[in-house]
Design goal:
The structure is a single chain. This protein is an alpha+beta fold. It has one domain. Helices cover 31% and strands 21% of the residues. The strands form two sheets. It has a four-stranded antiparallel beta sheet with strand order 2-1-3-4. A three-stranded antiparallel beta sheet has the order 6-5-7. The longest helix is centred in the first third of the chain and has 14 residues. It is globular, with a radius of gyration of 17 Å.
Length: 148
C-alpha cells in the first residue's frame, strides 16, 4: 500500500512539471493563429507557472498572445527559436531580434530571434533591417501594428 501511495505521489509531481517541451514540427498547431508549426527558425513557446505549454508558429504570434494574456511575469518560460540554430530554444526576454525583409517569417513580420546582440547585429550587417531587445520589440510592435 505504501508503495502504491508513493507511486501516485511521484506521478502527480511529474504530471505538474513546469518545463518547456519540444515542439512537434508538422504536428503542433500555433495556439494564437492555429497554423501548423513547421518553421524551426521562427517558432516560440510560452510555459505558465502551472505548467501549461503554448506553442506558436512565429515569434509575433507569441508577442500578441503575451500582450493579450498578461505580462511576462505570468510565464515561467518564454522561449524563441534561435535563428542560427534551428529548433533550439533561447530565452525570449534575453534574446535580441532582427526585423529584416531579407528573412521571411511565417506570419510575414520578418522577425527573427538571436541569442545575443552581437549575433543579431552581425546578421543585420548581412541582411539589413532593425535590431531590438525584448522591451524595444514590444514597444515597436505596439506602435507599428505588429502587436494587436
Amino acid at each position: 500500500m505504501k508503495y502504491l501511495l508513493l507511486c501516485l505521489v511521484l506521478v502527480s509531481f511529474m504530471a505538474c512539471t513546469t518545463e518547456p517541451r519540444p515542439i512537434n514540427y508538422g504536428e503542433d498547431v500555433c495556439y494564437y493563429c492555429k497554423m501548423n508549426i513547421v518553421d524551426r527558425q521562427h517558432a516560440a513557446e510560452a510555459v505558465t507557472h502551472k505548467g501549461r505549454v503554448y506553442t506558436f508558429d512565429a515569434i509575433e504570434c507569441m508577442l500578441n498572445y503575451v500582450n493579450r494574456h498578461g505580462n511576462t511575469g505570468a510565464y515561467k518560460f518564454l522561449l524563441v527559436n534561435n535563428y542560427l540554430n534551428p529548433g533550439a530554444f533561447v530565452p525570449a526576454l534575453e534574446s535580441h531580434y532582427l526585423i529584416s525583409e531579407e528573412i521571411p517569417s511565417p506570419m510575414g513580420a520578418f522577425l527573427s530571434a538571436f541569442p545575443d546582440e552581437e549575433s543579431a547585429r552581425s546578421m543585420q550587417e548581412k541582411k539589413g533591417g532593425q535590431t531590438f531587445d525584448w522591451n524595444e520589440l514590444m514597444a515597436y510592435g505596439k506602435t507599428e501594428g505588429l502587436i494587436n
